[in-house]
Each structure stands twice: as structure tokens, then as C-alpha cells.
Amino acid sequence: MRTTTYTTSYAVAKEDKTSHVIVRSKDAGLARLNTRLSSFTPEILAEFNNDDLPEMSGNPKKRFVFF
Amino acid sequence: MSDLIQVKLQRFSSLKRNETEERYACFRQLAYQHVTDNFLVTSRFKLDGIGSSALQAFAQVWKTHGRLVQWDWLIETMHWKKKQHARLELAIWHGMHLCGLMLGSTSKRKKILYIRGIEGAPYKHPLKGSVVPICIEVAEAYAALLGSEEIHILSPHPKLVPLYTKLGYNFKTRLLLYSYSVKIVD
Fold first, then answer.
1. Cα separation of B33 and B39, whole Å?
2. Are B47 and B90 in contact (CB under 8 A)?
């Protein structure tokens, strides 16, 4: 019975700690997201919009490289 | 250890796994929303994770056309969904058309975001020419959310390398085994 209580409280404590970390890292991430500027200008977008350019990236013959 | 505790620990472990999965799914949704709201492409498009509808469109429509690559998105997606919570996955939709797919992953400490594969629909579609920019934009937004310091585009197509360079990526090769374009995030 005692062990069961300990396990539950441990789980709750861990859960609270995780939630705190989630909120904190999400806030920092949102701040970075809101201040970032797009790398794309209309000129670069126009260069990408070219029928000769392939719409792909990665090694076409293999599965994605694992490392 | 008693069976009861064993069961509780298993439940706790799966709870933790679900929470982590939800956390990164939330980050991905934020990145999709950010790009949908702010990106310069005027055409209407919707960004989402690679779900069953995307995989169905891939199997029923894309596979019947001549593709540039040989990956099976079903196998790759299943692999990375199991392997990493923080993976980057993207399906680009225009109405009912699946226009593009992307998969990426992160290093263990999330300091590097790897773009492993991008593929545009192998036929004429409404977002032709915009798939790669949308993918890069989503990857950069996701990297900002995670706090990643570098973005690596693995095995970039040689024709696209000059454009990546204009976006701030440097082309590198490692031991002639593979090449990548890397960008240091501010």
C-alpha cells in the first residue's frame, strides 16, 4: 500500500515537472518564432519557381541516410 | 517487483511517451500555422503532418506517376514516427491535392535539424515551384521553436545548391560519403 502511494506521488511530481518544462520551452520557442524573419524574398521565390528545378531533396536511390 | 507496480510503471512510461509526442506535435502545428499565416506564397495551401490521408494519396496517386525518387513514404514515415518524437513531418495540401511531402529529424539534443527528404507531387500541381521553399520555411520555423542551432539539408539536389546558398546555407561533403547544405541559425 505504501509503495503504491509512493509510485503515484512520484508520477504526479514528474508530471508537474514535465508540464513546467513544456510551458517554459514552448514560451522560449514562441518568442524565437515571433522574432524570426523569413529567408525568402520574392526574388528568391521567383528563382525557385522554375520548371527545370527538381522538387526534391535527399538521395533519390536510397532510403534516408541513417546516422 | 510486484506485478501491480510493474503495471503502474508501464502506464507511467506510456503516459510520458504520449506527453512527449503531444509536445512535439504541438510544436509542429505551431510551425505549420506560422508558415501558413506569414509565408509569401499567395496561393491557398494547407500544411499538416503525414497522416493516413497523405499516405493514401501517395499510394494511390503518386506511385502511379514517374517519380524522381525511390523512397516509400509509408515505410519512411512509419520508421520515423516510431523512432523519434521530435521528427519533422510535413504534408502540403492544396484542396484535395497532395502537393509535397517532407521528413526530417533532429540530433539527440535537438541542436541540429536534419531535412532528410523532400518530394513534390510527380505531376503538375497548383503549388509547383513552391514545395521546396515551403518545406525550408517550415523547417526553419520548427528549428526556431526547438532552439536548434543548425539546419542540415541532407543530399541536396545539385541544381538547388546555388539557391540554398542564397538562403544562407553552405554546401559541405563529409568523407565523400554524403553531402549536405548547412545553415547556422541566429
1. 10
2. yes
Phi, psi of B185 (to 5 degrees): -85, 135
Residues 6+ apart with CB under 8 A from A17: none
- pLDDT tens digit sequence for B140-178: 999 999 999 999 998 889 899 999 999 989 888 876 556
The DSSP element (H or E) to which B41 belongs, if any, is: none
- Which triple of cell numbers denotes residue A39? 529567408
Provide the ipTM: 0.81
- pTM: predicted TM-score of the whole model, two decimal places: 0.82
pLDDT at B57: 95
Fill in the amino acid letter for B95: G
Residue B89: exposure state from Cβ atoms within 10 A (0-12, 13-18, ≥19): buried
- Residue A60 CA: distances (Å) to CA of A4, B155, B172: 53, 9, 18
Cell numbers found for residue B136 = 525550408
Phi first, then psi, for residue A52 (nearest 5°) are -80, -15
Task: Please name the member of A18, A33, A57 whose beta carbon is closest to the beta carbon of B157.
Answer: A57
Question: What confidence score (pLDDT) does residue A4 get?
Answer: 34
Q: Does B168 touch chain A (CB under 8 A)?
A: yes
| Contact assignment for B137 to A50 by CB distance below 8 Å | no
